[in-house]
Amino acid sequence: MEHIQINRKKIEQWLAEGYDVLQEGKLLKIEGDLPEFLAQFDDEAEPKTYLLKELVTWPEEELKKL
Question: What is the value of pTM for the model shown?
Fold first, then answer.
């Protein structure tokens, strides 16, 4: 995925397209249990896997840091 500026509008577009997760700069559509998928990354010191439904609630300033 090319480097793009992440903002709330872009995240809403991704959600509308059916994406669930942003992982290391790649959009993923998760088949199956989403909480189970995310649980495998709980031990990461620095999260690189983000749930789009959560990101859409972040302040714009924080989104710019991703």
Answer: 0.79
